[in-house]
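Postdoc handover notes: sequence design on the structure in folder B. Input tokens:
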């Protein structure tokens, strides 16, 4: 059976496997892993944003959080890095700029965006999402070893 036919036979199972695997990790672990793994597949112009996101996960800073959001708007929220940036932005703090009443995102939005970033990376890693999930999990395991 070819990779393509496996993906066709089980189109939902790969996403369920990805969801089950990701639920064993904390949002912080997923975010940090994504920043590292996305550097491997993202053009160089996205690397500074990934560095800022990693810094924000390890040392939160309100000004950096807003800069990440602005940089992600420029890069685009249709990219895995942009989606990761949005997940990070929504993970803490108000969505309102200073001087306006705070408006907080729904608590599940950050986790949903992290999942979207995982899905986007999965489909970048291999021709089929089934293989992409396996590749993602294997690359994550290599991060844990290092």
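Designed sequence:
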């Amino acid at each position: 059976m070819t990779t393509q036919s496996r993906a066709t036979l089980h189109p939902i199972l790969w996403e369920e496997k990805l969801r089950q695997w990701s639920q064993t990790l904390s949002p912080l672990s997923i975010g940090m892993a994504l920043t590292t793994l996305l550097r491997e597949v993202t053009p160089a112009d996205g690397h500074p944003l990934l560095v800022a996101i990693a810094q924000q996960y390890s040392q939160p800073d309100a000004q950096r959080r807003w800069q990440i959001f602005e940089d992600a708007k420029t890069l685009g929220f249709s990219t895995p890095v942009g989606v990761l940036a949005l997940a990070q932005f929504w993970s803490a703090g108000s969505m309102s700029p200073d001087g306006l009443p705070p408006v907080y995102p729904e608590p599940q939005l950050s986790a949903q965006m992290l999942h979207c970033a995982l899905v986007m990376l999965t489909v970048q890693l291999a021709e089929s999402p089934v293989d992409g999930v396996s590749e993602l999990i294997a690359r994550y395991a290599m991060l844990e070893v290092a």
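Context for whoever picks this up: The longest helix spans residues 109-125. Don't rerun without checking with the PI first.
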